[in-house]
Design a protein that fits this description.
The protein is of the alpha+beta class. The chain folds into 2 domains: about 230 residues, Jelly Rolls (Sandwich), CATH 2.60.120; about 90 residues, no CATH class. It contains 9 helices and 11 strands. The strands form 2 sheets. Strands 1, 2, 3, 4, 5, 6, 9 and 11 form an 8-stranded antiparallel beta sheet that branches. It has a 3-stranded antiparallel beta sheet with strand order 8-7-10, with no helix packed on it. A hairpin with a 7-residue loop joins strand 1 and strand 2. The protein starts with a strand and ends with a helix. The structure holds fe (ii) ion. The site of fe (ii) ion (FE2) has 4 residues, from loops.
Length: about 350
């Protein structure tokens, strides 16, 4: 396993599984294709824990393959470091059907934005001495136009059968690019590993620490995957609620505009709640707290109105899933007016 090390963006490794795993990958791909209800969907996934029968046995062969022991030598910044504990986070492992639409960058992505636009897979945790790695292994062939890129490492690969890409779940900036105009569905296995640096391994109660960190990642991932999945190709109110929410962080102008709008709402609420006759510090703090709560409720109400409006437009046929992103549309309106 050849590693590219980067102290800011995490370590990455790209390679190919030994060929004796290809037959196993073939069987996984064939069986999983039969389980996908709508092959035109952008994504579909199943957790390892929900698999049954032969596909689960085959998945197990890949997730416990010896090759992943190489993570022990590459998980941390320096080549001298070593992961004394390498824990396979089975609860996060999954089979994933990825079918990004041609020209997806020009349309609305909703929940799929979380996979296709440049991103890190998790931005919440930094446990000292711990690194979490994700391995993506491709089980299908025929991909000549969909590329997975580690942006800052300047590494990219068109994943085909047996190819794997391994990267830091918290640090590595990556994206998916598609150049062709026809769908290129791929079936991917996603594996997750928690590595603990050897310098921490002798600490007392280290297993409690490892277990706690593991559970944090599992809860985060289950929530993220659930909301992202129902927000991808949305057709329900809940789908649009989470879909718009997932796409929002990827548009800096919209983020700044929302932040500025929130400040305006908050200042209005503070002005409303502060009485000129109550000027003690206790009353000011109490009224400010009240204003913050009301302003958050205001923002939530406005967001629900936006989701309801988009959902109604979808139901009436006024917008289609492939239409320009709501956010990009808003940005273009602002640009035209300025
Ligand atoms: Fe990702």
């Amino acid at each position: 396993m050849d590693w590219i090390r980067d102290s800011n963006y995490g370590n990455v490794a790209v390679g190919k599984l030994p060929s004796h795993y290809f037959e196993t990958l073939n069987r996984i791909a064939e069986e999983y294709l039969l389980q996908i209800p709508d092959k035109t969907a952008t994504t579909h996934h199943s957790y390892y824990g929900d698999l049954v029968g032969d596909i689960k046995k085959d998945f197990r062969k890949i997730q416990f393959a010896d090759i992943w022991q190489g993570i022990r030598y590459g998980a941390f910044e320096t080549p001298e470091s070593f992961a004394a504990i390498l824990h396979n986070i089975l609860e996060m492992n999954e089979v994933y059907y990825s079918n990004p639409k041609p020209n997806f960058a020009g349309g609305s992505l909703y929940g799929a934005a979380a996979n296709l636009i440049p991103h890190r897979d998790c931005i919440l945790f930094h446990f000292p001495g711990i690194r979490v790695y994700r391995a993506i292994i491709c089980a299908t062939d025929g991909n000549s136009d969909t590329t997975t890129e580690f942006i800052t490492h300047k590494v990219e690969r068109q994943l085909n059968k047996g190819d794997y890409m391994l990267f830091d779940f918290d640090r590595t900036l990556h994206q998916v690019k598609k150049t062709g105009q026809t769908p290129t569905p791929r079936i991917l296995l996603k594996l997750h590993f928690l590595a603990l640096d050897m310098t921490y391994a002798r600490s007392p109660y280290i297993w409690i620490y490892v277990k706690f960190a593991t559970n944090c990642y599992i809860v985060y991932y289950r929530v993220a995957r659930y909301t992202e999945q129902i927000g991808t190709d949305p057709k329900t109110f809940a789908g649009f609620f989470f879909g718009i929410l997932w796409e929002y962080p990827f548009y800096a102008r919209v983020r700044y505009s929302v932040a500025a709008f929130y400040c305006a709402v908050l200042s209005l609420r503070i002005r409303q709640s502060l009485s000129p006759f109550e000027s003690t510090s206790v009353s000011v703090i109490a009224h400010t707290r009240e204003a913050v709560v009301y302003s958050v409720v205001d923002m939530m109400a406005i967001y629900l109105c936006i989701v309801a409006a988009v959902y109604c437009m979808f139901l009436s046929g006024a917008i289609h899933l492939r239409h320009t992103s709501l956010f990009r549309h808003c940005i273009s309106i602002v640009q035209k007016r300025t």
